[in-house]
Amino acid sequence: MTAQRACGVGDVAVSAALKVELDGIDVAIVKDSAGAIHAIGDNCTHGDISLSEGFVEDETIECWAHGSQFALRSGKPLNLPAFEPVPVFPVTIVGDDVLVDVQNPLNLN
What we know:
By secondary structure, the chain is mainly beta. The chain has a single domain (4-100), classed as Rieske Iron-sulfur Protein. Helices cover 0% and strands 39% of the residues. It contains no helices and 10 strands. It has strands at residues 4-8, 16-22, 25-31, 37-41, 55-57, 60-62, 69-71, 88-89, 91-94, 97-100. Strands 2-3-4-8 form a 4-stranded antiparallel sheet, with no helix packed on it. A 3-stranded antiparallel sheet has the order 1-10-9, with no helix packed on it. It has a 3-stranded antiparallel sheet with strand order 5-6-7, with no helix packed on it. Strand 6 and strand 7 (69-71) form a beta hairpin. The radius of gyration is 12 Å and the shape is globular. The two termini are 15 Å apart. Residues 4-100 form the Rieske domain.
């Protein structure tokens, strides 16, 4: 795994997202309502809008511009207008560090 530090665990609030760039890829680090941390592609597949500026609820993130929701575990859109998934990246927590492997997406092989 080629994971690298994306942020600290405490850098992301519950039900919020933080945009980071890793290897030239925009990634949204998201802490869902249960406190689990996810890493997904930051760009909405419908309108190239930053998902980290959207709304987090339970295990979903919603694009603020057009309302498409994406499942944080699978990257799949849950409603229109988006119909293509966003990449989901492996996350490892080591101490207070959130490590993300952007070279090996879990869902877009």
